[in-house]
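Memo to structure team: turn this sequence into C-alpha cells by end of day. - J.P.
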Amino acid sequence: MNKIIKVKNLKKIYKIQKKQNWLRSMFWPGFDNLCAVNDISFDINKGESVALLGPNGAGKTTTLKMLTGLMPPTSGDITIMGFIPFERDYNFLHKIALVMGNKNGLSWDLSANQSFLLLKTIYGLTDKESDNSISNLAEIMEVADCLDRPIRKLSLGQRLKMELIAAIIHSPEILFLDEPTIGLDVVAKKNIRDFLKKVNREQNSTIILTSHDMDDIEDVCERVIVINHGAIIFDGSIEKLLNNYRDKKYITFIFKEPVSEDSLKSYGKIIDKKTLSYKFEIPATDQSKLITRITENFSVDDIDITHVPLDEIMTDMFKAKQ
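Reply from structure team:
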C-alpha cells in the first residue's frame, strides 16, 4: 500500500494562562499546559477515505490543523507525500486542499468565477484546465447558474458547494474536510456526500474528514480513527466498529391503525413512538421472535430493522473512556 500520510508520536501542548486576580496576572502570570493531542500515531494510504471522530475538545481539529501545516506540533513527526506540512512548501500546498464548514475561504463581494480566476493564477492552471474543472464541478454540484453571483447572495448550501469547487479546482491529491455539511439541509448534505464519494472513487483522492454528523461518516468514509482526550481509542473500518455492537437491534413497526403503548410494553423495550409507529430495542437474537409475535397480534404495515446508530456507539465509547 502507498502510505502518503505518516504520523508518529504526534503531540500538541498549548500554554493556557491561569485564572487569577488582575494584579497577579499582570506581574506574575502563570500558565498551565493543555495537552490537546497526546502521542498519537497512524498511517493513511492513498485513496483512503478516513474520518477523525471525537467529542468537542478531543483534539481532532488540532490534528487536522497540524496535518495541513496551519500549526506545528509540539513534538512528533508528520510526513505527507514526503513533505513536512508546517514548512508550507509550495509543492505541498499544491497537492492538498482544506475546507472548513464554519469558515469562509471565498470573498463575499466577488462572484465565484472571479475567485476561481484568482485561484487559477495561484495554482498556475491553464485556461483550458481551469475552465474544464469549473464547468465539470459546477455541473456535478448543480450550481452552474450561480457562478457569476456575488458569494454573499448565495444560500449556505450554494456557498459551501463553491468552497468545495475552489478547494479542488487544482485536483489535489488529499482533501481535508472539517465539518463540511454543518448547517445544511438534508438535500444539500446528500449532494455534498455524493460529490465527495465521486471524487474519492474517480480521482482516487484521499479524504480526511471530521464531522459531528454521523451520516457524513457512514456515507463517505470507510475507515474511522476515534480520538478522545487527545489519544486514539479506535482505528479501523466502520464495519469493524459496528460489528462490536451487532448484538443489539432496533426494530420499528409501522401499524395500519393506532395501537396503545400499554398493549406493546410486554413485547420489549420501547425507545421511541409516533402516531402509528413504535421502535423497540432488543437483543439481536430476539429479532425473529419479536417480529413473529407483533405481526401475529397486530396489523403491521411495514417493518424497519437497523443496527445501533454510529452516534450512539460513539457516545458509548466516550463514556467508557472517561
